[in-house]
Amino acid sequence: MKKFFSMLLFSAQLLANTEPLVVGTTSGYAPYVSLDSKGNYEGFDIDFAQELTKKMNRTLVIKDCGSMPCLLLALQQKKVDLIIWAVSITDERMKKMEMVYYQGEKVMQMPFLFWKNIPEGIQSIDDLGQDPRYIISVEAGSFQENVLKKYPNVRFKQVDKITDALMEIRFGKSIATLADPSLVPELTTRYAEIKVLYLPLRPEEYSLGNGICINKTNQQLAEEVKKAAAELILEGKVNELEKKWKLGE
Predict the structure, then answer these.
(1) What is the domain count for the chain?
(2) Strand pairing partners for 211?
């Protein structure tokens, strides 16, 4: 009888350990998340999510939410358990959700991307607000948009993805766009016309790397994620994936 109940307990634990972990993300953000020729998700964040769920003995379920605002709403409404989408860690965001560091370095300057030419005399973000013709395209809900909101004289328009922003500057609808620093090497390799200007951030605008987002009401999950992410970093798995996807090269 004891053996029978032990087997039942083991089976229950095994079933619990394979419980799905729903990870919210969005394609069109290579090399973090994109679709391959067969329509399958690939990228650094996809590989990391797979390693994370494996470490937690969970089953990965990817949920594409389409844009940053939709990702945040899905997390708030508990339609996803986590967000893994190169989301920058900021003090403002940490007040609204748990953020577990997993990749990236502290960002103290912001890369502005121009098409072919950089206007003269731009040495700060404030300078972009001096000419009414200057409009900056930026991903809605992104760290970059939150920075621009702190400069009331800078005019900007929201887009859903970085690919949309690139079309805006390419066809002269915007003067510039912003990107995560780790994306710059790939974007400049893919588009030779892109010119990059790094402008300094104020200390209160710094990003502390990229974080896994978790609803604040789910502290148990947050602790599990912290432990698993820390182990993946210490084991060198994150560094291995960065090399695989050529992040920051």
Answers:
(1) 2
(2) 87, 101
